[in-house]
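dumping this here before i forget
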Amino acid sequence: MARTASGSRSLLRPRTARTEKPDAHERRPLPLPLRLLATLCAFVFMVAFAVVLARLTLNPSPASEALTHTNMHPGRSLRAYLDQPALRDAVKQIGGNILLGVPFGVLVPVVAPRTRGLLRVLLLTAVVMLLVEFAQGALVTGRAFDIDDVILNTTGALIGYLLLGRRMSRAVHAREPRT
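structure:
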């Protein structure tokens, strides 16, 4: 037994791991079965998204072949959309391209946790969308490469990541607390 500063006796207890309440900012991972289910669902949705993306962007459009042109100047197509007399057409073009990127930003960090992070999502999305646009311009009749589509799709992916993808990825792939 040892004496404390006040002179009273106290039993010395061996040091053991303290069980403190977790910090409010510390995240606990979901149980393994839920993590596996969430990852599987995200993978299925990612495949469905890829099919929809391919159908929307890689289908030939012979009727619009004369209207297509390659755009390598950021903003040129956006100005053309906004200069149209019907605002509805501009909203469809711009909004559609942004919405097309949102699922990518939500699902990629869940399916591949190493892609989590604003810069990583930005780079991965830009590369994938560039590849889609290159394929569209080189292989599909009536379609052309448009850098503004890449910018809008990437913007949509970043919106999806910031609104939902980051949280979902953290819930599914939370890091174990460091000891």
